[in-house]
Structures are given as structure tokens and as C-alpha cells.
Specification:
The complex is a heterodimer of chains A (42) and B (185).
Chain A lengths: L2 H19 L3 H13 L5
Chain B lengths: L2 H33 L17 E3 L14 E6 L5 E5 L1 E3 L2 E6 L5 H5 L3 H7 L2 E6 L2 E10 L3 H14 L5 H5 L4 E6 L11
Parallel strand pairs in B: 1-7
Antiparallel strand pairs in B: 2-3, 2-6, 4-5, 5-8, 6-7, 7-8
Classes of the chains: A mainly alpha (42), B alpha+beta (185).
Chain lengths: 42, 185
């Protein structure tokens, strides 16, 4: 596995852990998705 | 385009690709974790509704639902839950599902068709659970009253014509159907 792949796997792992275990992160993502679907992101 | 510009462009595409990939993993993680939760999240379907007192006995007075905007509903089969709007009309509760004629219905909303096939469900309001049977309403006097109540309550436009065109599906949250030995059918 080259360096880039290792960094990518690390980032994915970190993202999943953050989303699942950091309070509020999942909620923020869901609100952003809702606003995106409603066309009110910006 | 010189080599420097090409290299910068490649890096930019790579960065966008990585960000998109991370976003896909983040959303997938949220969707999967919701499936194993007691109840749904705002967007993603959740697992079975397990906590909360299970209310049995005579039919409740549903008028309190007039002040409740969102309820949690779980189908028995498949055992997944979601957050929905609710309206009360003439002592009965009703659910709606919009955009049933479009692409969203085919790719995103599966529960209305599942509920039509097997209406057994559990409703959770104010932390209390109620066994229900979803009955799809396509016509009749209730359609006008229920669409009017949804329109009043949520400030959106729902019409009997949409129900007729199957763009809007309505379900009555009827009492559970029991067999002779008391089991839920």
C-alpha cells in the first residue's frame, strides 16, 4: 500500500469515527443535507 | 496548458475526489448507525421503536396530536422507523406521503408501498408507543378533511386531487387488527 492509500484509509476511518461518536457532527451533516434538498444551502 | 497548470488541476480534482469520498463514507456511516438505533434520525430510517410505554386498552383520545408536529412510525415488516407528519381528523389519526408520483418514490421512499402491503405498525408519540394498523385512504369523505387539516397544520398545499392522482398517499392509523386469540394480525 502506498502512502496516499494509507492516508486515505486513515481519513476515512477518522471521518467515520468522528461522525458516529462526536456529539452533534451527525446532526450538522443531516441539517446540511436537508438544506441542500430544500435548495437553501447558501 | 503548461505542466504547472496541469499539475495544479490534477491536485484540485484529487482533493475534490477525496472530499466527496469522505462525504459518502460519513453519510453511509450515519445511515447505517440509524438502522441500529431506537428510532429514526431526521433523514435516515431507524431501527425498531423499543423504548417507551406500550399503551394498550381502549382507543385513546387523539386530540392531543393536534399540537404534535412529528411522530415516529415503525412498520412491523420490515422493522424500520421514520419520522412523519400527523394530522387528526374526526377523532382519527392520519399520515401522509408526498411526491409519490416522482423519482423520489422509486428510489427513496419505500415505506408507503411496504405499509400498503403489511399495515402493522407501532407509533411513538410523546415517548409512548401505540400499536396501529395503517390503512391507505384513496377516496371518501375523509380525504377532503384530512388534506385540509394537513394544509392548515403544516402550511403546505395538499388537495384531494393529488390523492386521486396518487401523487399524495394518505394512511389512517387505525386500531390494530387482532385475531380471535388476541394476536396482532
Amino acid at each position: 500500500m502506498n502512502r496516499f492509500s494509507l492516508i486515505l484509509v486513515g481519513l476515512i476511518f477518522l471521518t467515520v469515527i468522528t461522525v458516529l461518536f462526536m456529539p452533534g457532527v451527525g446532526d450538522i451533516i443531516e441539517v446540511l443535507i436537508l438544506r441542500l434538498m430544500a435548495g437553501q444551502l447558501f | 496548458m503548461n505542466n504547472l497548470a496541469r499539475a495544479v488541476l490534477n491536485k484540485a480534482f484529487l482533493l475534490i475526489g477525496v472530499i466527496l469520498l469522505l462525504l459518502i463514507f460519513a453519510i453511509s456511516a450515519l445511515a447505517i448507525s440509524a438502522r441500529f438505533s431506537d428510532g429514526p434520525s431526521v433523514i435516515f430510517a431507524g431501527g425498531p421503536l423499543e423504548t417507551g410505554e406500550l399503551v394498550t386498552g381502549p382507543e385513546p383520545d387523539w386530540s392531543f396530536a393536534r399540537n404534535i408536529n412529528l411522530i415516529e412510525l415503525q412498520l412491523i415488516e420490515p422493522p424500520r422507523s421514520r419520522i412523519l407528519w400527523v394530522a387528526d381528523y374526526e377523532g382519527k389519526l392520519y399520515l401522509n406521503s408526498n411526491y409519490m408520483g416522482g423519482l423520489r418514490q422509486r428510489f427513496w421512499k419505500k415505506w408507503p408501498a411496504e405499509a400498503e402491503k403489511d399495515g402493522r405498525a407501532i407509533l411513538r408519540i410523546n415517548g409512548k408507543r401505540y400499536e396501529r394498523h395503517l390503512v391507505r385512504i384513496k377516496s371518501g369523505d375523509a380525504v377532503e378533511g384530512v388534506t385540509r387539516e394537513f394544509t392548515r397544520k403544516y402550511g403546505v398545499t395538499m388537495t384531494p386531487e393529488e390523492v386521486e392522482e396518487e401523487e399524495l398517499w394518505l394512511f389512517e392509523l387505525a386500531p390494530p387488527r387482532t385475531s380471535d386469540n388476541g394476536d396482532i394480525k
